[in-house]
Design goal:
Length: 800
């Protein structure tokens, strides 16, 4: 007894240390790492801006935290975090600013060494010296004379900037591999490419977890992504195939290419899945049971999440106390889990089974099949079935149950399913990186195997318990997350049995139907609990009888095409909106839309215009450090947008201020280069003939834009704002140069269903509503909040 006590204390202490370490790491370093991360992926891909969704620190905390939590014997798995990690890796491909600046800085500080080490500028193409007068000419052919002095500095060092090489007798080399790589990666630094790469990354993580390349693709298509272009199909399939192949190379076996390995089903009758139409009602029963259990789990999780919020965020608990209590909750769950797993194999005598005559257990004792099978308080010649599952590899336990549930006692399978189900309810939701796929498959296969053995005892030996073990896993997975197609493909890919497809489809469809009768899927509920305004593609028919004007927000704060800087400063301070319609000052005609961060960037970088009336002309002045003048008639609006160069140069990255700290007035971001050079530098190059050419496709700028800042950017009450110098408030900003001229709009008399369709199909954040006497005046704005079911019910009074 004393030996057991010491072993118990060591076991509990080890699990407790791992669980608490993982929880403390997440709470203190990256709270966003808590949970599976799949709801965040779905919300982000649906168009919701999730805070710090793809942070670098979050990635490392998620990796280490997942390893610790999975190793702590808690009832959770690594599959959900793998999806999130894949999405972070995909998003990281669009965050290449630091790499670009490293290349650029090395080329500036060590120009000759840069040519040898791959940081030189690539050779200029022949079309780079075309005159910019042609409206259809490429932007990379634009040239401006040196006397424009756009950078408030001289243009020396041109011999190092060009693509040619003139070393005056020295050994000449002009290697630009890293410059080209940085430039190629810069094309992904936009929201569209980021969304596609996150979809591919999520699919890759899921495929690696289950060893199902096609299943991973379908998971991203069905579950994760709201907008999935057909061009992504082959790209995603290529990525998922490479991911599973790399796992196979790592394991040294091309048949082992997943984190969870499903067993290859074998039956004595090759036609067992074809000729068993009479078993269809049994498949439906298993599906209904799985859907009901999934609904019970989702309901319990939702209630426990609400209880946690009521306890931890009641307004009376400090942040430090909240962290302590969350870690204490993790410690309690860890101790409870370790205690049950240690005590139950000892207390339940039916778990001991003789290994004599059983090939599985005989080979297991020899260490060939299950490395962690042990006697655990059973007499000599026997093995403890619960100890085999609790203390061994759960991946191996899943394979053994799916291969032949009859090797386990029915009571053992029922105990594993019930105990793990209760523990999973308690564990999923604590402050740990958690996934539910592995425990769900284990629970479902155990309960399904128990049902299969019971059906076999009632209806004869023609019933295959292995089939029902697999169907149990499919039913419970569907009951929890409400996926259908991806689960069917995953199970068929994992088992290698296409003949089981029909029973799986029947089970999955029934489980989905039964679960939907009670509540939503787990990930939809998680997004609801976290406050993400997720928009479903399903549109209620009642939306057809309501108009856009019934739910739109009005009046709308608009910005003139040419606006005073001080007025923009006040607008940002007095509003919390993230998008503003741009209108003509006199007619109020709708022109486009501009984001809040774009307005802030204009003021921060001191991009102003000077209006001067001399005769019939006026001139435009932009950039504090230089002068770009364009003269037009009074009847035409003078703007930098008239210049194709400026149209590209004014492209402001949508994640420019994503990591601005509210407690500090400094930018703390990986893309910190904006502190010195604003956002023109992606497109500027000094050529050998001392002329500026503007490019994004072939070259990188050779030095930063040096400019004195006259504005301070910070966050006030959660909103991005800017504070200007007193002498800048009277200057004018050419808002129309930066606005989105292709913004979507809708009339106020359109059906509400049309607005919902546009939002879900196009991934919009703002939809401008037009009306008025002539139909071109901005009368309202539609955002995600306006399309929320509760908001629509409140505005219209209809029960949706």
């Amino acid at each position: 007894l004393e030996n057991y006590l010491w072993v118990f204390l060591e076991y509990v202490s080890l699990n407790l240390t791992l669980a608490v370490s993982s929880s403390a790491m997440c709470l203190l370093l990256a709270p966003e790492a808590i949970g599976s991360g799949i709801p965040e992926c779905k919300a982000y891909l649906n168009g919701v801006r999730v805070k710090r969704f793809n942070d670098t620190k979050l990635f490392f905390v998620k990796v280490v935290g997942t390893i610790f939590s999975v190793s702590s014997s808690l009832v959770l798995g690594p599959e959900g975090p793998l999806v999130h990690l894949g999405a972070i890796i995909g998003a990281s491909m669009t965050k290449t600013a630091r790499f670009e600046w490293s290349v650029r800085g090395f080329r500036t500080n060590h120009p000759r060494l840069a040519k040898i080490l791959g940081c030189a500028l690539p050779p200029m193409k022949d079309d780079s010296h075309h005159h910019p007068s042609s409206a259809t000419s490429s932007l990379r052919g634009m040239q401006f004379p040196k006397e424009l002095d756009l950078f408030n500095g001289s243009a020396k060092g041109s011999e190092d900037a060009g693509g040619g090489c003139c070393c005056k007798g020295e050994c000449c080399c002009n290697n630009s591999i890293f410059t080209t790589l940085a430039n190629d990666l810069s094309h992904f630094r936009n929201d569209m490419e980021r969304r596609d790469l996150i979809s591919i990354g999520a699919a890759t993580g899921f495929a690696a977890a289950f060893g199902a390349p096609i299943g991973g693709l379908l998971f991203s298509l069905e579950e994760a992504s709201s907008f999935f272009a057909t061009t992504l199909l082959w790209k995603t399939l290529t990525a998922t195939t490479i991911a599973t192949f790399c796992l196979a190379i790592y394991r040294g076996d091309l048949s082992q290419y997943s984190v969870i390995s499903l067993a290859a089903l074998s039956t004595p009758d090759d036609h067992v899945f074809i000729n068993r139409f009479l078993e269809m009602p049994l498949y439906a029963i298993v599906g209904a049971a799985g859907g009901l259990l999934g609904a019970i789990f989702n309901g319990c999780w939702k209630r426990m999440t609400k209880a946690r919020k009521a306890i931890f965020y009641n307004g009376r608990m400090s942040a430090k106390a909240r962290i302590i209590w969350k870690i204490a909750e993790v410690a309690f769950v860890s101790i409870l889990t370790s205690t049950l797993m240690f005590v139950l194999p000892i207390a339940l005598k039916f778990t001991c089974k003789s290994s004599v005559g059983s090939d599985k257990f005989e080979s297991a004792v020899d260490g060939k099949a299950l490395s962690d099978v042990n006697r655990f308080n059973c007499p000599s010649g026997q093995v403890n079935e619960l100890g085999t599952i609790f203390f061994g590899s759960r991946d191996d336990a899943i394979k053994e149950i799916l291969t032949d549930p009859s090797t386990f006692d029915e009571r053992t399978l029922l105990t594993v399913g019930v105990v793990f189900f209760i523990l999973m309810i308690l564990t999923f939701g604590v402050s740990l990186p958690t996934g539910i796929f592995m425990p769900t498959v284990l629970i479902g296969s155990s309960l399904g195997g128990f049902a299969g053995l019971s059906f076999q005892r009632m209806f004869g030996d023609t019933i295959s318990p292995s089939t029902f073990a697999l169907l149990g896993a499919a039913a419970l997975l569907t009951g929890l997350q409400r996926s259908t197609v991806s689960i069917c493909v995953i199970l068929v890919e994992g088992t290698g049995q296409t003949k089981i497809l029909m029973p799986v489809i029947v089970t999955v469809v029934v489980a989905r139907y039964v679960g939907d009768r009670f509540n939503h899927g787990l990930y939809e509920m998680a997004m609801e609990m976290k406050g993400y305004p997720f928009l479903d593609h399903h549109i209620s028919r009642i939306y057809d009888i309501h108009k856009v004007s019934d739910v739109m927000s009005s009046p709308v704060r608009t910005v003139s095409s040419v606006e005073r800087a001080g007025d923009i400063e006040k607008l940002l301070l007095r509003s919390s909106h993230h998008g503003f319609p741009v209108v003509e000052p006199i007619t109020q005609k709708f022109l486009g839309i501009i984001r809040r961060d774009q307005l802030v960037a204009l003021l921060e970088c001191s991009i102003y215009m000077e209006m001067s009336n001399t005769g019939s002309n006026r001139s435009l002045v932009s950039l504090d450090s230089g002068r770009v003048r364009a003269n037009t008639a009074d009847s035409e609006r003078t703007s930098l947008v008239d210049s194709p160069f400026m149209n590209l140069a004014y492209h402001i990255k949508d994640d420019r201020y994503v990591n601005l700290d509210e407690s500090s007035r400094k930018l703390k971001t990986l893309e910190d280069e904006f502190d010195q050079n604003a956002w023109l530098m992606d497109n500027i190059l000094l050529t050998e003939d001392e002329k500026f050419t503007f490019s994004r496709d072939e070259t990188l700028p050779n030095r930063p834009v040096k400019r004195k800042r006259r504005a301070t950017v910070t966050i006030e009450d959660g909103n991005l704002v800017v504070f200007l110098a007193d002498d800048d408030r009277g200057k004018h900003v050419d808002v129309a140069s930066v606005m989105n001229q292709g913004a979507y709009c809708i009339t106020e008399s359109c059906p509400l269903s049309k607005a919902q369709s546009m939002f879900t199909a196009l991934g919009l954040r703002h939809l401008v509503v037009l009306g008025g006497k002539y139909g071109g005046t901005v009368v309202g704005m539609i955002t995600r909040c306006n399309l929320d079911e509760r908001f629509i019910k409140e505005r219209t009074g209809c029960d949706l």
